[in-house]
Amino acid sequence: MAKKFEELWLKMPPESRARSEAMAEKLRAAMPLHGLRQARGLSQEALAKRLNVKQPSIAKLEQRTDMYISTLRDHIRALGGELEVIARFPEGEVKITNFAQIEDPSREEAQDD
Question: Which of 17, 48, 61, 96 is most open to solvent, judged by the fewest CB atoms within 10 Å of its CB?
């Protein structure tokens, strides 16, 4: 009979639990787009519907290493999040704020139809 995770977790020594929690937090802090989509419980098809694109577009996007910030922002919003761009310097961090939503004229025309 399989044991429940919670039972096993409670039997772990505190040091092991702390290491496990630290590793889980590290994994959550850095995740590729496909991992983020899966963690949010969405299929490529479901995300494609939210973005008004076809599923192959999502597959292609998840493989890219370079994309427009606006594309990434839309993708993150469709997953229920917000994108922030932060520059890190030895002196500290700076949030870049000039990436506000800029209306795409082609989207406005599509909405008018």
Answer: 96
Domain housing 39: 32-100
pLDDT digits (tens, 9 = 90+) for 51-83: 999 999 999 999 998 999 999 999 999 999 999
Question: How far is Cα 69 from Cα 85, in angstroms, rounded to an integer?
Answer: 9
Name the token pair of 22: 């630290």
109 inside domain: no
By C-alpha distance, which of 30, 31, 56, 36 is closest to 44? 56
Single-letter code of the amino acid located at 87: A
Asked if 7 and 57 sit in the same domain, the reply is no
Three state DSSP letters for the chain: CCCCHHHHHHHCCHHHHHHHHHHHHHHHHCCCHHHHHHHCCCCHHHHHHHHCCCHHHHHHHHHCCCCCHHHHHHHHHHCCCCCCEEEEECCEEEEECCCCCCCCHHHHHHHHC
107 lies in a domain? no
